[in-house]
Amino acid sequence: MKFSYDLQATDGAARAGMLHTAHGDVPTPTFMAVGTAGTVKAMTADAVRATGANIVLGNTYHLMLRPTAERVARFGGLHKMMDWPGPILTDSGGFQVMSLAKLRKMTEEGVTFRSHLDGSKHFLSPERSMEIQHLLDATITMVLDECTPFPATHDEAAISMRMSTRWAKRSRTAFVAREGYGQFGIVQGGIYEDLRLESATALRELNFEGYAIGGLAVGEGQEMMFATLDVTTPHLPAETPRYLMGVGTPDDLLGSVARGVDMFDCVMPTRAGRTARAFTSKGIFNLRNARFIDDGKPLDENCACLACSRHVRGYLHHLFRAEEMLGPMLLTIHNLTYYQSLMQGARAAILARNFESYCAGTRAGWAAGDD
Asked: Of 84, 87, 264, 293, whose CB count within 10 A is highest?
């Protein structure tokens, strides 16, 4: 199976397609459930599949520290270890090194850092990141980059982006090409249009199987994020998938699909589920709120997930007040199902050429709130 992307329909800049990989096909637009350490928190693999997910994400930084990439390889690879035969995309570890690691020191060669777990010393270079992701048997490998912080001056963003470009070239050289596997470059450049264009142009010359947009959703706000997408996605190849890293809210996803993005990941739906927040067709609910104590309605009447089809809001409220682990499990199932349904609806709307109406109706439901 060749790694490829078929663009099936467009509606404005919004795109519907099919990603073909060695581990199965992925309809786009798509949301990737985040399985950072080899598991989507509070979820079995069967439960993740039941949400409608086709692809999940793993993380180089966390897995290299525990249980180690070499150990995962001995277990048969990440697909076998976590019971996920479908596609897996692995983040390169760069963002986590910058945000989690202690006493990090970055040079042209790579990053030396101490683990946030036990203080042990490690080194991550483009070559080592590619080796780790190969050991994990990632379907989609991400290049190692530096996630440019926000705010950053133009000069700071340019220095960071250009080093990421040099690392992307080394990552491309180190990548082991295999039938049905792909590698994505990561466009950086902060909020600066000229730097985003420079980054995209340089990465296109390396002929990656896909292109990610990094360095957003780091504090710049939705308006600035959308403005950056507006000037970035037109410079990415139409025949390859486009992945916006670490985004975001349901509204972020719809706005980004409208700007030509195909793939997303974010911890928001799972993290929110563990803290009693539910994303629904009527907006965001906090199930700890006392108004739900006697509520006998389903969480979301438009959702067929386990939480919505078999339980009522009052029971979910009780689970969180009683600190029962079933509460976070059920709400995580619901939130991931909602995100998948949102993307499935977006795909159907693009294919039917009524994406703008779909977005308007969805946002009207959020604004209306609960009856």
From this structure: 87
